[in-house]
Design a protein that fits this description.
With about 425 residues, this protein is an alpha/beta fold. It folds into two domains: about 280 residues, Rossmann fold; about 110 residues, no CATH class. Strand 8 and strand 9 form a beta hairpin. The structure holds S-adenosylmethionine.
Length: about 425
C-alpha cells in the first residue's frame, strides 16, 4: 500500500469463505461540499462524493502516477487525481461525460469567460422549431433564443474556453432557484416536458425571462473560487479523456495504469439517457449513437457478465502490483439484500489473464449518515437509497511462473 491513513475500522460480518477482510468505518467526512469548488460545478446521475477518490488516490497511489476511471461520469476521479498531482485517464461511453470530464480538467479564467461571452450575439433571431412542444415548459422564448445562440457559438469553435462555458451552461439548464435558466424544475434530472408542464400548472408558474450570460458568469465565479496550482496544470497536460466502452478499452495499453478508481453503473435503476435529455439537446448529442452500449442491466446475471468483462480489461491495463478500487452499493431484491461487493469480488477472482490475476486485498465499507450523492441504486428520492459505499480493493499480481516464463522467452529470442 502506497500510503496509509490512520483509520478506525472494525470488522464487518465475515465473508462467506473468510478469504478477505471486510472492514467498516467512517472513511471520510459525511459533510457536504468540503472539497475543491470545481467538483460541484455540475450534477450528474449517480456520481460519488469527491472524498471517495481522494481517499483511494492518497491510499493507493503516488504523485505523478496514472489514475484511470473507465466510468468517468462527471469526472470526479479525474479532477481529484489532477488536484493530487496524478495524471488522469478517463473513459465513458457517454459523450456528455467525456465533455464534462475534459472541461473540468481544463478550467479557464473568469476573465476569459467574460470576454468570450461578450463576443456572443445573444439577440440574433433563431428558428423556434422544437421550442413549442419540447422546451416551452422550461424556458421563456427569449431565454431559449439566448441558449440557441450560445449553443451555436460553442459549436462553431469548441476550444478550451467554449468547452468550459458549455460545462457552466449545462449546470444551469434546470433547477429550482432563479440561478437556473429554467422555471422551477428538478436540478438532478431532466424531466420530460409533459411532467414539467404539469408542475407548471400545479405551481401556477410560467417560465420567466432568465438572462443566460450573467448566470454563467456567477456559476463560473463559484466553481473557480478555490483556484489551481501550477502543479495541477503540469499534470493535466498528460491527461487522456476519451469516449470508450469499458468492456473493451482499446486505447489503453496493457500494464500502463497505476491505479483504477471507479463506480460502474448497476442494473437499470439510473436512466442516463432519459435523465439527461436536456443536456443532450444543449450539447447536440444524439443518444442513438451510443445508447446501445450504455449499460442498464435488468438482472444480476447480466450485470455479473458485464462486470466480468470490465474486470478483465482492468486487469489487462493495470501494472503488476497496482490496485483497482471498484465502488458498489447494496441492493434490495425480492430475495433480500444483495451485497454487490461480493459479486465483484467473486467475479474478480475468476477473471483470467495469461500473466496476472486479481486478489481481493480488502473490502472497505464507508458507513455514515446518508450520503446524498452516493445513492446509485434503488433511488426514488433523497430519503431512500444506499447509505454505504462498498469499496472492493483488488490487487493485480503476477502469476507464479509468469516472470520466469517472460525472462525465459526473452533469453530465447535473444539467441
Ligand atoms: C455510476 S456512474 C459514474 C459516476 C462517476 N463516478 C462520477 O462521480 O460522476 C456510471 C457511468 O458509467 C457510464 N457507462 C455506462 N455503460 C458504460 C460502458 N459500457 N462503458 C463505459 N461507460 C459506461 C455511464 O455513462 C455513467 O457515466
Amino acid at each position: 500500500m502506497a500510503n496509509s491513513h490512520s483509520l478506525k475500522l472494525v470488522a464487518d460480518r465475515a465473508t462467506t469463505d473468510g478469504s478477505y477482510k471486510r472492514l467498516v468505518g467512517e472513511l471520510w467526512s459525511a459533510r457536504q461540499r468540503q472539497m475543491h469548488s470545481l467538483h460541484y460545478v455540475v450534477s450528474y446521475r449517480a456520481s460519488f462524493k469527491p472524498e471517495l477518490p481522494d481517499f483511494c488516490i492518497q491510499r493507493y497511489s503516488e504523485k505523478g502516477q496514472i489514475v484511470l476511471d473507465p466510468f468517468s461520469g462527471r469526472g470526479t476521479t479525474a479532477l481529484q487525481a489532477n488536484l493530487l498531482g496524478r495524471v488522469a485517464w478517463a473513459r465513458d461511453i457517454n459523450p456528455l461525460s467525456v465533455a464534462m470530464t475534459r472541461a473540468k480538467t481544463n478550467p479557464v479564467g473568469l476573465d476569459e469567460i467574460v470576454l468570450r461571452l461578450n463576443e456572443v450575439d445573444f439577440t440574433r433571431p433563431v428558428a423556434m422549431d422544437g421550442y413549442t412542444d419540447q422546451l416551452s415548459p422550461f424556458y421563456h422564448p427569449e431565454t431559449f433564443r439566448e441558449l440557441m445562440n450560445l449553443r451555436s457559438h460553442i459549436r462553431k469553435n469548441k476550444d478550451r474556453v467554449n468547452a468550459f462555458i458549455e460545462l457552466l451552461a449545462l449546470s444551469r439548464l434546470h433547477g429550482h432557484s432563479p440561478g437556473f435558466f429554467s422555471v422551477y424544475s428538478f436540478p438532478q434530472i431532466s424531466i420530460p416536458p409533459e411532467r414539467q408542464a404539469m408542475i407548471n400548472r400545479k405551481r401556477h408558474q410560467e417560465p420567466e425571462y432568465r438572462a443566460v450570460a450573467p448566470r454563467v458568469i456567477k456559476k463560473a465565479a463559484q466553481a473557480l473560487r478555490d483556484g489551481f496550482t501550477s502543479d495541477f496544470f503540469a499534470v493535466t497536460a498528460a491527461n487522456s479523456i476519451e469516449q470508450e466502452n469499458a468492456r473493451n478499452l482499446k486505447s489503453v495499453p496493457a500494464n500502463s495504469v497505476d491505479l483504477i478508481v471507479t463506480s460502474p453503473p448497476f442494473l437499470d435503476k439510473v436512466d442516463y439517457l432519459a435523465d439527461n435529455w436536456l443536456e443532450f439537446w444543449f450539447s447536440g448529442i444524439n443518444p442513438k449513437h451510443f445508447g446501445r452500449d450504455l449499460v442498464m442491466c435488468r438482472s444480476v446475471q447480466e450485470w455479473t457478465s458485464f462486470i466480468t468483462d470490465v474486470l478483465s480489461e482492468m486487469l489487462r491495463v493495470l501494472q503488476p502490483r497496482a490496485y483497482a478500487v471498484v465502488e458498489v452499493g447494496e441492493v434490495e431484491t425480492s430475495a433480500g439484500m444483495l451485497y454487490l461487493d461480493e459479486v465483484v469480488a467473486a467475479a474478480a477472482e475468476g477473471v483470467s489473464h495469461p500473466q496476472k490475476r486479481f486478489v481481493v486485498e480488502e473490502v472497505l465499507i464507508n458507513q455514515q449518515s446518508f450520503t446524498k450523492l452516493a445513492n446509485c441504486f434503488k433511488v426514488d428520492n433523497n430519503e431512500k437509497g444506499t447509505n454505504t459505499n462498498r469499496l472492493v480493493v483488488l490487487k493485480a499480481i503476477e502469476k507464479q511462473g509468469a516472470r520466469r516464463r517472460k525472462t525465459g522467452s526473452r533469453r530465447q529470442s535473444a539467441k
